[in-house]
Amino acid sequence: MKISKRLEYGLDFLLALGLRWPDYGTVAEIAERNQSPHKFLEAVASDLRKSGLVDVKRGSGGGYRLALEIKEISLLDVLSALEPEWRSVERRDSNASQTEKALNHFLEEAQSKIHETASQISLSQLIDEYRKNNVIMYHI
Hints:
The chain is built from six helices and two strands; from the N terminus they run H-H-H-E-E-H-H-H. By secondary structure, it is mostly helical. A two-stranded antiparallel sheet has the order 1-2.
């Protein structure tokens, strides 16, 4: 499965905000730390705000923060915000052949299962994975 840069940067951004919850973080500092393009990350943050996943606070001490607890944000929420084609199942032509109808039904069922699975994956799992892989190991 190929992951778009948009989704990758969006997950990076949400991870950074989740790690600093409930504090705010700016796009500039997150972009610098993650070595992400600032303008691109700003557009991603804007889409996440429009979808209700992050809040923005203007002025000194402001920036972005999660609008929900990290365990309440699913992978499907992020996909829907950043990858519009995930929002709905595409309906096919009713004049299709029997083979095309079977294939279309099969693909719609597969997409439904993917949506179901993605809705059950919480971004808290991403934070847990990050913390698990960034434990400092001491050897004697």
